[in-house]
Amino acid sequence: MSSTHTLDGRVAVITGAGRGIGASLARLFVEQGARVVLNDLGTSPDGTGSDESPAHQVAEEIRATGGEAIANGGDIADTATGEDLVRTAVEKFGGLDVVVNTAGILRDKMIFNLDPADWDAVIRVHLRGTYSTVKPASAYWRAQRNPDGQYRIINFASNSGLHGAPGQPNYAAAKMGIVGLTYSLAQALGRYGVTANAISPTAVTRLVASVIDPSHEAMAELLPENVAPVVAYLAGRQSGWLTGRVIGAAGRTLSLYNNPTVVSTVESPGAWDLDWLAQNVEASFRPLADGPAPLRP
Question: Angle formed by the axes of helices 79-93 and 129-144, to 10°?
Fold first, then answer.
């Protein structure tokens, strides 16, 4: 790690900060000079129950090392919690520079077995939880009228959405919704000094313990701590050149994803004829689209 503190003077809100990636982010942010407001409801991986102690323990650990951290145990999908996090940052630390949306839950089932309650719960935490923080944060930044503010939104996407995990339709939909939201935020907020990017992490956390074997030798480098450095970079002032993008983070490897782009077109010479369409669509699109996209870890 660099000897310079790349986040000196920065104030950040981090959700899902009681464990896993979020807790690693909080520790590194403070190590790099930031002051942080931490949120975690402390639920089980499926979103049931609550326990505020993990967020408070991380905050106490940070304060014990001389850092500045405030813990919040509210439900991030409740918009009042997002408003409280932003207000706390501004009132206690004098401003807000960075919002990181890490909080999430899983309720994995194949689509034909997926109950409406399990769909709604996952969408609520991921999508509404992200909206919960970015709305008040963006309103605050807009009010600053500072196009050089170097403000940052860092959302969390997932390989499950980018590559279509078959047993996670609710999670995949939520995470791709966050990607679309990130694109929109980048377009809307750049004039106010804000960049918005998304991280697609591969890391051994509580959420993936049921679908991967954490003892496998390939998992040795897939630690939450190895996701934190790229998020810290994006949170800093030097990353202002990058916005509206998705970055994969797995161990010691970072990947820049393409934004959606047209790869082939078919244009009818006149009114659509279904036989002509079938022939030309297959000839033009099939070489590029035949078969599902490969899944990644």
Answer: 40
* Whole-Å CA distances, 35 to 109, 153, 241, 280: 39, 16, 23, 58
In the chain, domain spans: 11-256, 266-297
The DSSP output letter for 259 is P
pLDDT digits (tens, 9 = 90+) for 119-145: 999 999 999 999 999 999 999 999 999
**Nearest CA to 26 among 60, 247, 231, 36?**
36
Catalytic residue numbers read 158, 171, 175
β-strand pairing of 151-156 with 253-256 = unpaired
- The one-letter code for the residue type at 242 is L
**CATH class for the domain made up of 11-256:** alpha beta
Q: What is the torsional sign of CA 47, 53, 55, 58?
A: negative
Across the chain, mean pLDDT equals 92
